[in-house]
Amino acid sequence: GVLMPEIETFAVRIVVDRVFNDSLPNARERGLQLLVECGDEYTESDPTLLERILRNLVTNAIRYTQTGNVTIRCMRVDGDLQLSVIDTGIGIAEHQQAYIFEEFTQLHNPERDRNRGLGLGLSIVQRLAQLLGHPLQLQSFPGQGSVFSLTLPYRDRPAGTTVERRLEPVHPAAVLDLVVLVVDDDADILRGTRQLLESWGCTVHTADSARAAVNVADAVDRLDALVSDFRLPDNASGTEVVDSVRSVFGAQLPALLITGDMEPARLQEAQALGLELLHKPVRPARLRAWLQKLVSV
To answer: What is the pTM of this model?
Structure first.
């Protein structure tokens, strides 16, 4: 009841391309094809919230698809737009299809392995779709994959607007010759961030706790930057990690905090320590821009 959508008219492909580029490394790691079938259709919605919905659907599809592909498709249907995520995964039995939208539900994770998520993705998808007024449909059969579809309003392209096609991941020309320590207790985030930074030319060390971060700092000879999640196991915080690692490499070591916490106190705490802070989900372009500044200094 707090979140208020900011509605505007925009090209669906702008959102699709961002999710595609961010999700492609994970799909390739799992041996899957990530495909896009989307033209220049325009809709009216909140682009940030729509991106959150699509990102959760694509992440889920990749997680539960062993072989084949995941496709993001946008097409005209009966005067509206249908934005779909189609996978060749394990599928969902009909009697379980309503159940998967409940919070903390994971049909194929009975042991509650946190590395496979918390079971909130589809609950968030459903709530955001309801908030935006975009009907959500599911078609799925066990062993044959699933199709999650959103119905969006179709809008004419605003006069004078153009959209750049960018359906392949961006590979910036400049190589970032940096040694970076990334700290996060989520294995998927660590793996994805490592792949992203290495694709930019960085040497990457990772740690899943404050203690592990200190151990890495003690073991390496060079460190150019630190990127840490704000909340870590054992009630440790990213600011504590920064202090500990800087005690090894000096107070001037550039450090970036990542958080999903929107409380003003988090920003004030970071500013008091002279740290930059980015809120989740962090777009690769913003992370790249922060690292690029270090190379330019």
So the answer is: 0.55
